[in-house]
UniProtKB/TrEMBL annotation:
PANTHER family from the UniProt entry: 5'-METHYLTHIOADENOSINE/S-ADENOSYLHOMOCYSTEINE NUCLEOSIDASE (PTHR46832), 5'-METHYLTHIOADENOSINE_S-ADENOSYLHOMOCYSTEINE NUCLEOSIDASE (PTHR46832:SF1)
GO cellular component, as recorded: cytosol
Taxonomic lineage from the root: Bacteria, Pseudomonadati, Nitrospinota/Tectimicrobiota group, Candidatus Tectimicrobiota
GO terms, molecular function: adenosylhomocysteine nucleosidase activity; methylthioadenosine nucleosidase activity
Recorded superkingdom: Bacteria
Native organism: Tectimicrobiota bacterium
Domain (Nucleoside phosphorylase): residue spans on this chain: 6-190
Protein's recorded name: Nucleoside phosphorylase domain-containing protein
InterPro entries: Nucleoside_phosphorylase_d, Nucleoside_phosphorylase_sf
Entries under Pfam families matching the protein: PNP_UDP_1 (PF01048)
Amino acid sequence: MPGYMAVVTACAQEAALVYRLLQSRQPRPSPAGLVWQGQLHQQEVVVIQGGMGPAHASQALHWLSQQYPLQGVLSVGFAGALHADLKAGDALLVTHLLPAQTATADTAARGLWPDARLAHIAAMAVAQAAVVSHSGTLVHTPTVVTQASSKQALGQRSGALAVDMESYSIGTIAVQQAIPFAILRTVFDTSNEDFLMPMGQCTTANGCLQSWRLLACLLAQPSLLLALPHWWWASRCAGQHLQRWLRHFFLLLQQGA
């Protein structure tokens, strides 16, 4: 099928995992964020780094759909685990998306469902990539869930495996515009960890990390310095597994799976 596969990411680290695989890595600014365009396994790909949160994700996909003929869209990046059996780097095979306001087991019939073909390719790709995976629901929240107790409570209330801030908005726009969509995300923070790093305060609107702001936050809260090695390891693990998964996904897509 002709057209571009759109990859929507929130931050610089997530975007880099994708654009480093492309033959062309030259970014250009846009009203909705930084954009990279290139090929991966002969598939035309456009990547956007749109910023954190649902509003930025919606704006990013709206802009892409106006600028490119899209054959599909992927929500790519990291997520927070809501159950103890999910570890850093595990892949999420999302079968159902829940919005925050209906995130209870009684309302699980509501929500969005990823495109069956793209979800099937994602499942085959994660098996070929030899990444541990879990199938289930991803729930949306408008802000980062930082406390372990809050993550565990959200998991119990919603029945979801994991949480993120962007995928539901991306899926909503995709469904409205009849664009097939899927989610490729790996676990960054587990359900028993407090994630207190002030990333929202240290990133720009389009998701670029501002090192001086991060340094200022760390100096203001020296205890966070002790957590840096762990979060560096978690991001590396989640990123390596996600990038390996993406390689296999686009290879299978090119092969007509």
